[in-house]
Amino acid sequence: PVKAKPSPRAKLDILDELQALEAENTALKRQLAEKLNAENQKMRKMLHRIETQIEL
Fold first, then answer.
1. 18 lies in which domain range?
2. Residue 34 DSSP label
3. What distance in Å separates the CA atoms of residue 43 and residue 18, rounded to the nearest whole number?
4. pLDDT tens for residues 2-54?
């Protein structure tokens, strides 16, 4: 079987799509990091409250 080479336009489409997906992944990673940081901050506050109650 003879394999057809992708056209230059198809290669550009693939590269454009790959670049868009990489940009989306970067944005999603940033959002996840923000969410996890906020969650950690809440847990630190909860731990602080518990520690304060134990000291009473």
1. 8-56
2. H
3. 37
4. 677 778 888 889 999 999 999 999 999 999 999 999 999 999 999 999 999 99
pLDDT of residue 6: 75
State how many domains the chain has. Answer: 1
Which tokens hold the place of 31?
A: 């959002």
**1 part of a folded domain:** no
Hey, CA dihedral for 29, 31, 32, 33, is it positive or negative? positive
Distance CA(26)–CA(21), nearest Å, equals 9
pLDDT at 1 over 80: no
Whether 51 is in a domain gets the answer yes
Residues 30 and 28: their CA atoms lie apart, in Å, by 5
Q: Which two tokens stand for residue 50?
A: 């518990």
Does residue 2 lie in a domain region? Answer: no
Tell me the residue type at 32: L
